[in-house]
Amino acid sequence: MITLALAKGRIFEETAPLLAAAGIRPVEDPESSRKLILATQRPDLRLILVRAADVPTYVQYGAADLGVAGRDILAEHGGQGLYQPLDLGIARCRMVVAVPEGFDYAAAVKQGARLRVATKYIGTAREHFAAKGVHVDLIKLYGSMELAPLVGLADAIVDLVDTGNTLKANRLRVVEEIMPVSSRLIVNPASLKLKREALAPLIEAFARLGRG
Ligand code: ATP
Ligand code: PRP
Fold it and tell me: Checking DSSP bridges between strand 115-119 and strand 37-39, what pairing results, if any?
């Protein structure tokens, strides 16, 4: 049995066409089913549905053989115990530092001010600001980061941006780019050894179909 870990929502939606092109279809719609293990029409392949941030953990410990996770999530996880053979080129966005439109970020950094930064990406943000020599106090949030500077919780945020609509709607602007983000196929190294015959064609199909 091959187990593929996916997150509901964007990751599932953008991976589904790749799966379909590789001849894999879940037998139930994950958006409406409450099941967390979904069979596919291939008897040797099942999907498990986990939170986006938990995909690397399931693959690292071998509870899933494969998974699809954003580079943002992998950077935060650290990637230990994971083989990352492919950029699938899906769920593309950018990780950025953003501040309220009226906030002079450059001046604050120049003065050596200690900035309060709210983010879901504590590890990545810590590394980014340390490399730039910017002093920060990091505040962990689990979502809706854009709200934090509007209500005085933080001076800046580290978050994902795609169209820029969310930033614009909340009168925030990008001041630094941290990294381009897209989703990767991740593989458990032991699975790759033990199930190579079953996994190799699947990884090859993803490689042909991914747009990375
Ligand atoms: P959860 O619902 O568990 O909190 P989440 O909100 O991070 O997870 P999604 O919003 O589905 O889950 O995001 C999954 C992945 O898709 C992210 O890790 C990132 O790589 C990518 N992503 C997030 N937002 C965007 C976006 N606006 N445009 C493109 N890709 C995005
Ligand atoms: C993501 C991200 C931003 C938004 C950016 O949130 O956290 O808030 O998308 O996209 P935009 O630049 O196109 O507006 P998402 O829509 O996934 O909401 P959630 O993380 O709160 O579920």
Answer: unpaired
Task: Please tell me the number of the ligand nearest to residue 72's CA.
Answer: 1
Domains of the chain and any CATH numbers = 2-92+182-209 (3.40.190.10), 93-179 (3.40.190.10)
Burial class (CB in 10 A: 0-12, 13-18, 19+), 97: buried
Nearest CA to ligand 2 atom 19: 143
Q: What is the pLDDT of residues 7-57, one digit of tens each?
A: 999 999 999 999 998 899 999 999 899 999 999 999 999 999 999 999 999
* Residue located nearest, by CA, to atom 19 of ligand 1: 70
Q: Which ligand is nearest to the CA of 12?
A: 1
**Helix, strand, or coil (residue 31):** coil
* Pocket mutation for ligand 2, best pick of 166, 172, 173 (most atoms within 8 Å of C-beta): 166
Name the closest-CA residue to atom 9, ligand 1: 10
